[in-house]
Amino acid sequence: xxxxxxxxxxxxxxxxxxxxxxxxxxxxxxxxNGTKPAGYxxxxxxxxxxxxxxxxxxxxxxxxxxxS
Length: 68
Description:
Elements: H1 18-23, H2 40-49
């Protein structure tokens, strides 16, 4: 976690196969109604600060919890 920048995720390493994805559907996003992935607002603000278009930042993130 990057606590200096809003607690955003900094990276994930994982192996996922099709059977896992079929049994773990995940959740949908709805940014217009406030359902956003972690780091979404930070990414849009950062892109704007760099002079880019915030509309180029999408809401598609895959973050997995791996059990050891």
